[in-house]
Amino acid sequence: MPTITCIEDLKQLHKRRAPRMFYEYCESGSYTEQTFRENTSDFAQIRLRQKVAVDMSNRSLAGAMIGQPVAMPVALAPVGFTGMQSANGEIKAARAAEAFGVPFTLSTMSINSVEQVAEATSKPFWFQLYVMRDEDFVDGMIARAKKAGCSALVLTLDLQILGQRHKDLKNGLSAPPKLTLSSIMNLATKVRWGLGMLGAKSRSFGNIVGHAKGVENMSSLNAWTSEQFDPRLDWSKIARIRDQWGGKLILKGILDADDARIAADFGADAIIVSNHGGRQLDGALSAIRKLPEIVAAVGDRIEVHLDSGIRSGQDVLKALALGATGTYIGRAYIYGLGAMGQAGVTKALEVIRNELDISLALCGERDVKALRRENLLVPKGFFDAYD
Ligand SMILES: Cc1cc2nc3c(=O)[nH]c(=O)nc-3n(C[C@H](O)[C@H](O)[C@H](O)COP(=O)(O)O)c2cc1C
Q1: Whole-angstrom Cα distance, residue 350 to residue 7?
Q2: Catalytic residue among 166, 211, 276, 305
Q3: Mutational test site, ligand 1, from 106, 160, 279, max ligand atoms within 8 Å of CB
Q4: Which helix (H) or strand (E) holds 126?
């Protein structure tokens, strides 16, 4: 077993072990990838304030997200195609999260279905919904998530139309992979991945195939997904979904203070400040740069969570110090999954926990809930550099 010291180690292993089309699906942003890059480079510009001679015993990372206890405020974000990074990837990630004590969010575009994940786990997980034109599918999906015992609905608002990711087009991304000369040559070098896939419970979108009208095979699935994301999604449709779900609701993809105010008026339980990991509006500001403004606008009324760019426990610390009450990792755990399956997801969580814990102590704090702006050093004008 290789020695893993940081998320970057998992990323390098993921790159070696997963088929190129799936690694590159993960490691890409839209268009020029400016927002994708700045999500991480902006975190790096923020520094931590070192404090000494403070009793650092009995530290605590525990907290709550939407009222649910968490071992640390770091959930697993919804990620499509996860079961293509490693066989039964959603089940592996959900089990790792459950054992660790953090929430797992299953994507609508998962490979394992909501039923398969529920059967393989013993605690409720969260379900992420994409609103599709096919209302029967959406109604059915909400009912299935309820039946599976999901304890929150994460409604994604920033992907009603797809930001282009060049690599996916060049690689002919599909699940299962389309067999072309170049994909066959690449798959031939991924023996461990291929053997795993022989035992996969599902090799295509488990929530969709056999559930959406007219989707029984790959070609009908491709046609369905390309035309299904509903561009008419607006607050009235969101209200319909909120009422139909009737449980905890998290609105994902908010990057603007005015939108955050509407979300708070609307009665959601939390918002996720996010630019979809730089995969949608290229040119949008990084999530961490927008966070303080949004916290100032609605932080006293609604839980404000953040994702996009977190690669370390230090990044989590920065988001919490700027007022987020919860964070999510996307790529950081997918690297772990692609590198080493379930053990890799656990490893990613352990790396982040240890980094958060040690950095907390060196900042002179004992409880993540006590983190605040004073723990950070931020370049002058950083948060109002853009108008
Ligand atoms: C490969 C990949 C697939 C994703 N699929 C989904 C998805 O199906 N639904 C969704 O709401 N967000 C999806 N996202 C966005 C993540 O939920 C999250 O916002 C993003 O990964 C956070 O950025 P990070 O990867 O830098 O942590 C995806 C992200 C990645 C990297």
Answers
A1: 10
A2: 276
A3: 279
A4: strand 126-129
Nearest residue (CA) to ligand 1, atom 20: 277
Counting from 1 in the atom list of ligand 1, the atom nearest the Cα of 275 is: 19
Residue 221 predicted with pLDDT over 80 = no
Q: Which of 26, 276, 286 has most ligand 1 atoms within 8 Å of CB, for mutation? A: 276
**Atom number of ligand 1 nearest to Cα 332:** 27
Using the CB atoms, write b or e for 136-147: b if 16+ within 10 Å.
Answer: ebbeebbebbbe
Q: Is 352 in the pocket of ligand 1 (CB under 6 A)?
A: no
- The pair of three-digit structure tokens given for residue 133, joined into one six-digit string: 């034109």
279, amino acid identity: R
For the CA of 154, the nearest atom of ligand 1:
11
Which stretches of the chain are DSSP H helices?
7-17, 20-26, 34-45, 82-85, 89-100, 114-120, 135-147, 166-171, 181-187, 191-198, 218-228, 235-245, 257-265, 287-298, 313-321, 331-362
Q: What pTM was estimated for this model as a whole?
A: 0.97
Whether 128 lines ligand 1, by a CB cut-off of 6 Å, is yes
Residue 31 pLDDT level (bands cut at 50, 70, 90) = very high
Pseudo-torsion of CA 372, 378, 383, 385, nearest 10°? Answer: 170
Span 99-128, average pLDDT:
98
What residue's CA is closest to ligand 1, atom 21?
Answer: 330
Rounded Cα distance between 316 and 368, Å, is 10
Tens of pLDDT, residue by residue over 253-279, are 999 999 999 999 999 999 999 999 999
Cα gap 85→83, rounded to integer Å: 6
- Residue 105 is classified by DSSP as E
Structure confidence by residue, pLDDT tens digits, 117-143 = 999 999 999 999 999 999 999 999 999
Taken in order 298, 299, 304, 308, the sign of the CA dihedral is: positive
Question: What confidence category does residue 218 fall into, taking pLDDT thresholds of 50, 70 and 90?
Answer: low
The finding on whether 65 has its CB within 6 A of some atom of ligand 1 is no
In this prediction, residue 363 carries a pLDDT of: 98
